[in-house]
Design goal:
Length: 365
Amino acid sequence: MRDRVKRMFGKAGKPLDAMVFVNSVEPHLDQTFFYVTDVPSGLFEGCTAVAFPDGRVEMFTSELEAESARAAPDVNVNVFTTRDDQAKQLQKLLGSSGKIGLNFHEITYESFLGLKKEVPQGEWSDVSEAIRRTRVVKDAKEIERLRAAGRIGTKVAEEIPKMLKVGMTELELAAEMEHRMNLHGAAGRSFGTIVAFGAHGAEPHFSPTDTKLAKGTTMVCDFGALYQRYCSDITRSYAFGRPPADRKAIHDKVEEAQRAAFDAIRAGVPAKEPHLAAAKVIDSSPWKGRFIHGLGHSIGLAVHDGFGMNGRNEELLEEGMCLTVEPGIYVPGVGGVRIEDDILVTKKGYEPLTTAPRGYLEVGR
């Protein structure tokens, strides 16, 4: 973890005495707390991590999760009994620290006010951009976890066609997909599973309902596995029975757009280029303007972990970034198709982290 911490301080662009990462209550947990501690399990609500320029990390935890804290590699663990006790320990540790970096992107205002009270001499500054730029390029341990999360997503995507049956609801399919993720080694889902039948597929972030599956229906299944805190994010679109003929043409066009995006990905390319390559394919088709979101996003400890690939982002892709590539076509009142995969950016291209079949498939004919 020391190398991660040193890289964050190196990217801060200014001298700092410390960086402080504070958790509130779920879902207001700073994933950078887990990035610098690599603690294997637990929520650590109300806990704090303090990092120093030499790479040292001090963790402050209650007895509730002290055992998990002690399993964290290369971290000094401080156990507190009450919030006042934690405040006193922080005051003692940071008493001589002047310039302190905070992750403004994640810290709650309540937590910030608490820190100002506990460490009144602190000169607080925002280092969220340095954190983002550090976390967006993965180290070897992170990549292995993302590969494992991707393998789980791949297995479940391959199994979805066998799960489908007339009359099952979107909620039932989502539950079965999440169960299969657990069976394949996931600790849980990395975000709320999306299952959208028929016209519901025209809404990219649809929440599943009790709508039932019928013959001639298309669907979008977007889901992700959580493996040792790291996320996968994969989408496959299927046809159940034989839908109207244009559905296959839509699917084929999205698959073509994804291939065009893949061809544009390599280290040194602006993040906008793969998006523009995919958009060009779709906008030259009858579905011009129906690709309504960015091509993808970085992925890691959070499912949206740093930046998005859209038509305006000039940020250069770097070797070690892990991204989703997810073009789609959405037709209100009809439905949608999205095909999404996770990839690792390499010097000359990319490594796929999810590999389930992408082609058009009519299930249950």
